[in-house]
Amino acid sequence: MLLTVVAFVVLLTVLILIHEFGHFMAARKAGVAVEEFGFGLPPKARVLFRRGGTEFTLNWVPFGGFVRLKGETAIDKRERNTPGSFHQASFIARIMILSAGVFMNFILAFVLLVFGFSAGRWIPTYFQMSDMLSHAERGIISLKTGVVIEKVLSGEPAAIAGVPEKSVLLAVNDTLITLAEQVSQIQENKRRVVYSVLVGEGDQATEQTYTVALKEGKSGVVISTFPRELSAPLRGVGPSMLLAIREARIMTEQTVYGIGALISSLAHSGRVPEGITGIVGIAQLTYTSVQAGFMTYLRLVALISLSLAILNFLPFPALDGGRLLFVLVEAVTRRPLNRRFEAYSNALGFSVLILLILLITFYDIVRLF
């Protein structure tokens, strides 16, 4: 349990610090003064050291971190216009500063994915068996397939013969079966066949045979191909980078879909849909990944890092994407925004985000019971 707590705190703290480090480096590069780089969240416990005009602090809440840029939230015009202020930087510089945190989270996720697919021999994410078979043919994964009887239709030949559902179809007429398509080919123009099936799991599994009288070449079962044995070879950096790009695309699509599903569900029913998790859900995933091993934990870190990047880039007040939107509006209109409006918008956006986090956390807790 203690290991899970440590892993959870490390996960979120590292992701947030990496994000804030991106803002820090971009601001320094653009000549914007970074007044504070905080480890943890306020209140401040102590000043660790000062370097380059930046105060590095340790804060009492041992979670995450932050950077405080000179004049970033200032409303007073004189404060905004002082040398080294965020608002004195060019539009391009401000865009780079606001995008740097997201960029660092993307980079971290990509590096972890490349490492995982090479040294960790990770299995890519698949939604279609055809993709899995294609990768197996190309040597990206090692795969042995089997055929499972998903459903036995009532009153049909297989049901009459007593063929059990959820059993593995090993052979038809002594021909080994590894793909679902084989079954219809073997049964074509035959009046009856013998099914050899594996019933049960592990040490309790037994092989049984059933004679099935066919009806127009069909036995009345719903079958599908599934991976019986799945592993990955040791890959080089090049192939691992390609797999990392593919995995990042899939993760991005899933995150965007999840955001859309959340908005739609909240608008229609006021409920948080299944699959959307908050702090409690991430803690559960951390526990599961720690139990599975270090490489599984790293895969979770990559997923959360990528999700954090996408969420932060949304054009919503208080997020990096919302602040970026304000800068882009200024760049297009060539007129400074009303700073009070910007400050109130960010405050309102932050309040909405806190309420949303609390709502998601509530549903996380409800699902525990």
Distance between the termini: 19 Å
Strand content: 15-25%
Query: Which range best describes the helical content: under 10%, 10-25%, 25-40%, 40-55%, 55-70% or over 70%?
Result: 40-55%
Alpha-carbon Rg, integer = 28 Å
Backbone shape? elongated
- Succession of helices and strands: HEEHHHEHEEHEEEHHHHH
**Structural class from helices and strands?**
alpha+beta
Q: Please tell me the overall pLDDT.
A: 92
Low-confidence stretches: none
Short description:
With 369 residues, this protein is α+β, with helices and mostly antiparallel strands.
Question: How would you characterize this protein structure?
Answer:
By secondary structure, the chain is of the alpha+beta class. It is built from 11 helices and 8 strands. Strands 3, 4, 5, 6, 7 and 8 form a 6-stranded antiparallel beta sheet that branches. The chain has a two-stranded antiparallel ribbon with strand order 1-2.
List keywords for this structure.
369 residues, elongated, two-stranded antiparallel sheet, alpha+beta, Pdz3 Domain
